[in-house]
Amino acid sequence: MKRLTTDTPDGNFETMLNLVFGQDGWAHIRHDGEEGTVPLTQWAKAQCILHGCGEFSAETPQEIDEEISDCLMMDFPDCPIALAYGFAVQACHLRGRLKMYEDIFFAENGTERLPLDVLRDLAGRTVPAGPLTVEELQEMSFEPAWVDGARESKLGRSGWAIIYYSKVEKYVTVWWPATEYADIPSLEHYGDTWNAYPCKPEEAVP
Question: Would the pTM count as exceeding 0.85?
Fold first, then answer.
């Protein structure tokens, strides 16, 4: 799966999905065909004046936002400029929220830190308290878990990982999606220097 939000769109499709974005607390249009990036309020006011709205007196971004919102909600709900403003505000807020999640779930090179099927699995779990047992660990086949491995010399870190247990070779592989590295910790040290949990320990349900 490819991320949708970007601050450097390439091509028509990415530009359309990121045409309106948030900056300094206000929506901006990435380009308006003439001036490049402009505040949405500035663009909307210019369009109102251009199309003959003689009663438009707002000056500050806050005043412009309130006046156009009033037009959309009460005075002129069919005004195409007010409608475009409403669509753009909606797109800006939804893009901003989506970007927060994509910044977490995608690495800087655009690859997924956790695949979508893993996220679905995590979302549907009933999470018990306490670490996985050795027996549960030995049944894992490319499954997600929160690994507390900062004290284990062959891990040296903690975080979400994908765990695979080889029943033939009798060892555990811990793959770190965020870094694309894999470690092979000592199974003999499990429960002592490292543990694996179905979720972050502080989020477990007692």
Answer: no
